[in-house]
Design brief:
Blueprint: H1 8-20, H2 32-56, E1 65-73, E2 78-84, H3 89-105, H4 113-132, H5 136-145, H6 147-157, H7 162-188, H8 198-203, H9 208-225, H10 234-241, H11 244-269, H12 271-298, H13 302-321, H14 326-357, H15 373-386, H16 393-406, H17 413-442, H18 448-453, H19 461-479, H20 482-501, H21 504-512
Antiparallel strand pairs: 1-2
Helix pairs in contact: 1-2, 1-4, 2-3, 2-4, 3-4, 3-11, 3-14, 4-5, 4-6, 5-7, 6-7, 7-9, 7-10, 9-11, 9-12, 10-13, 11-12, 11-13, 11-14, 12-13, 12-17, 13-14, 13-16, 13-17, 14-15, 14-16, 14-19, 14-20, 15-17, 15-19, 16-19
Amino acid sequence: MNTANFPWLTTIILFPIAASLLIPIIPDKDGKTVRWYSLIVGLIDFALIVYAFYTGYDFSNPDLQLVESYAWVPQLDLKWSVGADGLSMPLIILTGFITTLATLAAWPVTLKPRLFYFLILAMYGGQIAVFAVQDMLLFFLVWELELIPVYLLLAIWGGKKRQYAATKFILYTAGGSLFILVGALTMAFYGDTVTFDMHSLALKDYAINFQLLLYAGFLIAYAVKLPIIPLHTWLPDAHGEATAPVHMLLAGILLKMGGYALIRMNAQMLPDAHALFAPVLVILGVVNIIYAALTSFAQRNLKRKIAYSSISHMGFVTIGIASFTDLGLSGAVLQMVSHGLIGASLFFLVGATYDRTHTLMLDEMGGVGKRMQKIFAMFTACSMASLALPGMSGFVAELMVFVGFATSDAYSSTFKVIVVFLMAVGVILTPIYLLSMLREIFYGKENEELVSHQKLIDAEPREVFIIACLLVPIIGIGFYPKLLTQIYDATTVQLTARLRDSVPTLAQKKEEAPQLSLNAPTIGN
C-alpha cells in the first residue's frame, strides 16, 4: 500500500465513530469488556495519528498537508475536505493523547458504561474533525457534533446540579454556534461564486464593513468556547458538576477549539477586520487574566477554583493572537497545548481527591497530604506547572506571549506598558491562589471528622500512570520547547506576515524598510 495516498485523516476521524457503533452489540455484563474495547480503540487511533504525523507531515511546509477532498454536494462546491497544517496538527495530536488518557481515567465508571464509552469515542472523532476539516459548513456540523455527547456526559454522570450545568452548556454553545452557521452561509454566497471551501473563502475580496460584521459574529461564537469573559459562566458550572474524564476533555480539548477557530477563521480568513479588532482582543485577554484570577482566588469549591484558573490562562491565548509578532502567535499556540496538558492533569487530580474525601470544599479539607502522599506530590507538580514554574511548558508559553506582545510594533508604547503590567499582575496572582489551595488541602492539621468518615487511600498505579504521561510532555516542552514549536513555526510565521500586511502602519514600514526582518520589529516607533 502506498501510505502517501492513504486517507489518514478521514480514517482517524471515522474510526472511533465507527467503533463506537459496535459497543451496543459487545457481550458485556459489568462494563469491563467495553472499557477495554474503548481503550484499545483510543490507543489504535492515537497510534494512527502519530504514524500519519511521523510519515506524512513536513515541518518546513506552512500549507495544508495530508489533504483529502471528496465531492459531497457538487452544485454548492460542498466537499468532505480535510487537511492539517501547523495550527491543527499539534491540536490533533493533543486530542488523541488526552482522549485516550480520559478513557483510562474513566475506569471506575459503572453507571451505564456502554453509553458512556459510546459518547467518549463519538467525541473522539468529532473533536479531531474540528481541527482537520477545511469546509465551512462541514466545520459547523462537526462543531455541533461534540455538543450532544458533552451534554449527555454532564446530564447523566454529573453532580447534584448536573441538569442545570448541562442545560447552561448547551444553551451557551448552541447559541454561539448559530453565528458560525450564519457566517458560513454569508461568506459562501458572497460574490459571484458559491463555495464553502475555507481556502477559497479566504481569497474572496470582502468589503471591510462586511468583514467586521463577520468577525464580530465569529468572535461571539468562539468567545463562548474559549471562553472569554463575559461569555464564560457556563464553564465553572460545567466543571463543577463533571466527572474526572469529562473534566479532562473540557479543559484539555474543548477550550482549545475556541482558540483554534479564532486563529483559523477570524485571523486567517478576515485579516483586515482582525487588524481593527486586535486591540479589543488584547483588552479582553487582560480582563480574562485579571478577573478570572481574582475570582479563582475567592472560590472555596475546588473544581470552580481550577475552572476560573483555566479561564485566566486562556487570556494569554487571545493576547498572543493579537500581538502581530511571530513570537506572540507562537506563544498562543504553545499556551493552548500546554494548558491542555496542565488543565487535564489538575482536573483529573481534583477528581481523584474528591473520590477519596467526598468533598470539594476547601474548608473541609486539611492535612490530607499525610495520608495521600502520592496525590500530594502529583498535585504539587501539576500546580507548579500551572503557575508557570521555569522548566515547565506553562512558563515558556506565557513568556513567549509576554515578549511577543512587548516587542510588537503594532501598538503604542503606553498601551503596551499598561497591558504588560496587568499581565504581570495576573501572573503574580496565579501562584498565590494555587499555593494557598495546596496549603488548605494538604498541609496543616488533619480534619478529624473527614478522616474518621472517609478512607483516605493513596493513588493507585493507574492514576500515577496517567499523571506521569501528562507530566512527561509538560516538562519536556518546558526544557526543550522546539519539540512542539517546530511543528507549527512555518505556519505561524507565514500567518503573522499576512496579518502584519493588513495593518497600514506595519505595511508602510515594510515598504520603507524591506531589509528589516519581521522577527525583529523596531520598538517604540
